[in-house]
Amino acid sequence: MKTIGFGIIGGGLMGREFASAVARWAHLLDFDGRPQIVALCDKNPALYPWYKDNFPSVEQITDDYKAMLANPKVHAVYVAVPHNLHEEIYCAVIRAGKHLMGEKPFGIDKKANDAINQCIAEHPNVLVRSSSEFPFFPAMQRIGEMIEANAFGRIIEAHGGFLHCSDLDPNKPINWKRMIQFNGEYGCMGDLGLHVCHVPFRAGWTPKTVRAVLSKIVSERPDGKGGMAPCLTWDNATLLCDAINPADGNGFPLTLRTHRIAPGQKNTWYSEIWGTKKSARWSSLNPKILEVMDYTGGDQTWQQVQTGYESAFKSITGPNFEFGFSDSIQQMWAAFMYELIHGKPLKKFAGCVTPQEAALSHRLFTAALKSHKESTTVTI
Ligand SMILES: NC(=O)c1ccc[n+]([C@@H]2O[C@H](COP(=O)([O-])OP(=O)(O)OC[C@H]3O[C@@H](n4cnc5c(N)ncnc54)[C@H](O)[C@@H]3O)[C@@H](O)[C@H]2O)c1
After folding, report:
1. Rounded distance, CA 254 to CA 207, Å?
2. CA 128 – CA 224 distance, rounded (Å)
3. Which of 218, 326, 369, 375 has its CA 20 to 30 A from that of 41?
4. Under CATH, which number does the domain 2-130 receive?
5. CB 83 near ligand 1, within 6 Å
6. Distance CA 245, CA 94 (A)
């Protein structure tokens, strides 16, 4: 059993999800490594007691990430901070020779992403990946296997999306995720976009062009101090891409939706692929249900398969039980650990987002901003 000393920079929402996955690492079976959280860095001391109370392995708590990077017991770092800090902190981690799990969008904009990629190129011995957990749901693992087996025939269309609804409430106070200086020009695409790109990009479906329509629906929000603050980020983005399937060289329409204002949708991530031989669709709305249609002539009948806890990385939970969000987070971390130890992913669709995939998403989102601004189709 190989133990890897981890530091967390940014111990908020996602930092705690990682820590929780580590706390129940025994959930995984026959896994030959474990992360051990030895250091926490956050500017907010209110978070410290939760880590202190639950993680006796944490020996260092600091508000200075440079002090953490000087700690020889830290071999890998999870950075989950606002987007404006990605470039500075990701590059510092890589230059310190620590392995990095970063967060989307992996740089606030393309310039920041380019700088991160330059650092990665200069430090080839460091493993760098980005978080994206939804492909680890069992139904999506099955869809990944169908893509690998080329089971769809000629792809007719593919659709992916990530839909949120809480911003429909105009009284929801503003936070950093709605402020351009912290979240970036991409707005909802920066927040949600890498999630919807992960599976299509892993499949090799490279978008050649994009026509994007972006919307700003709520222009100001309560600032939490009794006043109103401008809300300048894009709320919703719909991208129509002309993608190529490398399996047969054919093009097909790929739509990617990232909506913060999708009435009624609470963290709904979905994927749908239509093919001449097989079609499949899954949504986190009904996480157990995988819908599949095989076509060999005759009736066109969609079937529903109830998936269970059939995870990429074996766990103690029996296959008849349900799988949830925190399980997908733990599976994603197992994928990062597996790649760190074995030098390659367990299988194609059980791997974290690579820097190349993140870079492609930046080219796509930058092209999408231009497409919307000029009302034109933009080549990527
Ligand atoms: N994978 C996912 O499903 C998912 C979900 C939500 C957010 N995210 C991503 O995770 C990242 C963080 O988002 P979050 O929701 O956890 O945000 P958050 O606001 O809950 O946490 C961010 C933390 O960073 C800390 N911080 C800010 N500046 C810092 C600095 N200079 N040094 C150390 N700590 C600092 C803050 O105090 C805060 O605790 C973002 O990139 C976001 O896009 C990913």
Report:
1. 8
2. 37
3. 326
4. 3.40.50.720
5. yes
6. 33
Q: What angle do CA 213, 211, 269 make, to 5 degrees?
A: 65
Q: Name the CA radius of gyration of the chain, rounded.
A: 21
81 lines ligand 1 (CB under 6 A): yes
Mean pLDDT of the chain: 97
| CB of 17 closer than 6 angstroms to any ligand 1 atom | no
Rounded-to-integer distance, Cα 323 and Cα 335, Å: 17
* 256 residue type, one letter: L
Backbone phi, then psi, for 320, in 5-degree steps? -85, -10
Q: What is the bridge-based pairing of β-strands 206-215 and 220-222?
A: unpaired
User: How far apart, in whole angstroms, are the C-alpha atoms of residue 374 and residue 38?
Assistant: 49
- pTM score, whole prediction: 0.97
> In Å, how far are 168, 196, 260, 281, 310 from 304, measured between CA atoms?
32, 23, 29, 10, 16
- Euclidean distance between CA atoms 125 and 108, whole angstroms: 25
Q: At what angle do helices 13-23 and 325-342 cross, to 10 degrees?
A: 70
Mean pLDDT of 13-18: 98
Q: Buried b / exposed e across 304-325, counting CB within 10 Å, b at 16+?
A: eeebebebbbebebeeeeebee
24 Cα to the center of ligand 1, angstroms: 22
Domain residue ranges in the chain: 2-130, 135-322+354-379
Quick check: CB of 44 below 6 Å from ligand 1? Answer: yes
Which amino acid, 208?
Answer: K
Give the span between the Cα atoms of 240 and 257, in whole angstroms: 9
Residue 211: other Cβ atoms inside 10 A: 17
* CATH assignment, 135-322+354-379: 3.30.360.10
Task: State the distance from the centre of ligand 1 to the C-alpha of 85, rounded, in angstroms.
Answer: 10
Structure tokens, 75: 């071999």
